[in-house]
Amino acid sequence: MPTSISITEIDAAAPAATVFARLTDLNGFESWLPHSGSYRGTREVSSAAVSVGTTYREHTSAGPMTGRVTEFEPDHLITFEQQTDRGDLAIRIRYALSPTDRGVHVTRTGRITTAGRLLLLHPVVVFAIRGENRRTLAKLKHAVEA
Q1: What is the pLDDT of residues 91-140, one digit of tens each?
Q2: For a tag on the chain, would you pick the N or C end, based on fewer CB atoms within 10 A?
Q3: Cα–Cα distance between 79 and 71 in angstroms, integer?
Q4: Mind listing the pLDDT tens digit for each residue in 40-77?
């Protein structure tokens, strides 16, 4: 199964706590992250207070994905792992937040693994996800700096 890594970074003029609050409000994602061709919403969040073990369903162009929070360090780190119901796409997204003189530096590291029907489309899938990563961080930056 091919796996690719995608790293996207931004600097935001906002406190780490503000950025982290946006990333962990799974029920409120749509307030700052509108739907796109790839992302169609986050639903069925298992708990309002997100922590390790929180589960959710994300609707994507590849199909519904079941996700889980696997790392959680307030104002510093959160990791989401999700997989399509068919098991042909697995994504691990890790947000690391580092304070800067003007706010926070956000690094979004994605690990993208394809299998089955998406195996031969791996480069196309990675290209699409990298675009979505850039879009997500741009929307996050705009939301926390507004």
Answers
A1: 999 999 999 999 999 999 999 999 998 889 999 999 998 999 999 999 99
A2: C
A3: 5
A4: 878 888 988 899 999 999 888 888 899 999 999 999 99
Helices 16-24 + 122-145 axis angle, to 10: 130
How many other CB atoms sit within 10 Å of the CB of residue 24? 18
**Domain made up of 3-145: CATH architecture:** 2-Layer Sandwich (3.30)
How many C-beta atoms surround the C-beta of residue 4 within 10 A? 16
- Structure-block tokens of residue 139: 């929307």
Instruction: Give me 121's structure tokens.
Output: 């489309």
**So where are the chain's domains?**
3-145
- Alpha-carbon torsion (120, 94, 103, 132), positive or negative: positive
CA gap 108, 136 in Å, rounded: 10
Paired tokens of 14: 């906002």
**Tell me, what DSSP letter sits at residue 32?**
T
> How far is Cα 96 from Cα 5, in angstroms, rounded to an integer?
15
Helices (H), 59-121: none
